[in-house]
Design brief:
alpha/beta, 14-stranded mixed sheet, ten-stranded mixed sheet, 23% helix, 33% strand
Length: 478
């Protein structure tokens, strides 16, 4: 049963346009009668309800309530994009679209299944993935893992399920990399988190197929707060892919998920994501990895859509010879601010990091690289390389690079390079002379610009990112 507060509930008979009438993933959504029993706004009663609904252990409720207090005591960030227009009292923080998690794809409710079918989730599972999770609103509606990896001891569960089946493991790592005190939205997440993924790769196990989770917000004014908790034991190896999307309503929505990755000595892990929220959404996500001796962490990401994005995946290099790669693309269109980047904190000797970020801004959009590289006193012979390239498609658009570099050890070697440019008219002329229209020619050049990042994604996600560029580039000229 969903918590009912009559003063705040939506009308069950509210009309929504059918998905078939729309053109893109941002305009396609299902009926959301389940919202009739939900409420907007956040208080202790709701936090207690979420924990009770999920039958959580007492320690998790205590963590939620402590996070709620930090949230109320912490102001909005005073740096970065202006968030004052986001009315946090008008967000729905918890909604269950279905009462159960399906064990087979056939058991998923038809309307929800249709949404994920459009996104290619079941086909990808059959052809190229070791496991799949699918979250809709606040709960995971489907989760699976191939039998061959179960036999190797891999755990791939909805985090709500993992909390019951593997409580000691979850308790050890939950919000140990991202404490609620980190910032206001980390505290908010700690209070209302729901769903997400728990991935555990045992010592020495190499999962040679990607694992994937897809997160979908469907209803108007929703907030989604999935928690992804990944533990990669010594010498293990895996690749996790995340996709996200939400439809457009003209009403603000909020995504404040959290990703924590623990990479043990000698392990290797890659985290790929393509986030394509609608332009109603505030994407205020937090991602952090703790990387031990001789381990490697790689972040690959693409950010499209959203009203405002603030996202800076962080690698903390804690052990000697730990390494990290951060590769990212952001596309800012009309009315959008893509404030993205990377953080790397070098704490141990002989650590190294590489950051490559590309941005495109169009129709007055603003793309910002905001990054931190910190080399601590004990990080002898640390090395870091930062490269930021911006493509600005018209005079109304803007791009900024805001690096913060803190070097506390004189042996460090660090390089930072930033460039900004526009479409080359000679290249467009050449492509048009070969029979392409101007929009298609421009999209081809932009796809070439981001190709170094796209090639690091699995094929289906590379295709998806190129398709996102084409959608964003429609009517880009003239």
């Amino acid at each position: 049963m969903i918590l009912e507060l009559e003063n705040n509930k939506l009308e069950a008979g509210e009309k929504e346009a059918p998905a078939e009438a729309h053109d893109s993933m941002w305009d396609s959504y299902n009926q959301s009668a389940y919202m009739s029993g939900t409420r907007v706004g956040l208080d202790e009663e709701l936090v207690r309800f979420i924990s009770h609904e999920k039958r959580e252990p007492a320690w998790m409720l205590e963590k939620r309530l402590a996070s709620l207090k930090i949230y109320h005591d912490t102001p909005l960030p005073k740096w970065g994009p202006d968030l004052s227009r986001l009315d946090l009292d008008k967000i729905t923080y918890y909604a269950r679209a279905t009462d159960k998690q399906s064990q087979t794809w056939d058991d998923v409710p038809e309307d929800i299944k249709a949404t994920f079918n459009k996104l290619g989730i079941p086909q990808a599972e059959q052809e190229a993935l070791a496991g799949v999770g699918a979250q809709y609103e606040s709960t995971v509606i489907y989760h699976s893992l191939k039998e061959q990896f179960k036999k190797q001891g891999v755990i791939f569960e909805d985090l709500d399920v993992a909390l019951k089946k593997h409580e000691a493991l979850v308790k050890k790592y939950f919000m140990a990399a991202v404490p609620p005190s980190l910032h206001k939205f980390a505290a908010l997440h700690g209070a209302v988190w729901s769903g997400g993924t728990f991935l555990y790769i045992p010592k020495g196990v190499k999962v040679d197929l990607p694992l994937q989770a897809y997160f979908r917000m469907n209803a108007k004014g929703m907030g989604q707060f999935e928690h992804t908790l990944i533990v990669v034991e010594e010498g293990a190896q895996a690749h996790y892919i995340e996709g996200c999307s939400a439809p457009r309503y003209g009403v603000d929505s909020l995504h404040a998920g959290c990703v924590e990755v623990f990479v043990a000595p000698g392990a290797r892990f890659r985290y790929s994501s393509v986030e394509s929220w609608s332009k109603d959404a505030y994407n205020l996500n937090t991602k952090r990895a703790l990387v031990q001796k001789d381990a490697h962490m790689e972040w690959v990401g693409g950010n499209f859509g959203s009203n405002v994005t603030m996202l800076y995946p962080c690698s903390v290099l804690m052990g000697e010879h730990a390494t990290a790669d951060h590769l990212g693309v952001a596309f800012a269109n009309r009315g959008q601010i893509q404030d993205t980047g990377a953080k790397v904190i070098h704490l141990a000797p002989n650590t190294s990091s590489n950051i490559v970020m590309k941005s495109i801004s169009k129709n007055g959009g603003r793309a910002i690289y905001r990054g931190l590289v910190e080399i601590g006193p004990a990080a002898e012979n640390a090395a870091a390389n930062i490269k930021c390239d911006a493509l600005i498609l018209d005079p109304e658009s803007a791009s900024d690079t805001i690096p913060l570099i803190k070097i506390k050890n004189p042996s460090a070697v660090l390089a930072h390079e930033a460039s900004a440019g526009k479409l080359n008219e000679d290249d467009i002329f050449y492509l048009r002379s070969r029979g392409l229209d101007e929009n298609t020619a421009s999209a081809m050049i932009v796809n070439g610009f981001i190709e170094p990042i796209v090639k690091e994604l699995p094929l289906e996600y590379a295709v998806e990112m190129n398709r996102m560029v084409e959608l964003e580039m429609e009517n880009s000229v003239g």
